[in-house]
Write a structure and sequence with these properties.
Blueprint: H1 19-24, H2 27-66
Length: 67
């Protein structure tokens, strides 16, 4: 008793008329680019706030001592 297994080529489930449209669609790439820009801007804002935090705190402390 032997079991015969035949390999079948993989088939795409997409119809032929939608494949060129999918290849030329760049919406996902654009979303990734915007996400990378937003994360870079967020990191820059966080670094600025962190670096100015001590300076701003000292400035407000000196203002409070005047009153």
């Amino acid at each position: 008793m032997s079991i015969k297994i035949e390999a079948k080529p993989a088939r795409s489930t997409l119809p032929l008329h939608s494949r060129p449209r999918m290849i030329s669609d760049e919406k996902g790439a654009t979303a990734v680019e915007y996400a990378l820009m937003a994360s870079g801007i967020g990191a820059a804002v966080a670094a600025t706030v962190w670096s100015l935090g001590n300076t701003t705190g000292a400035f407000y402390a000196s203002l409070a001592s005047l009153f």
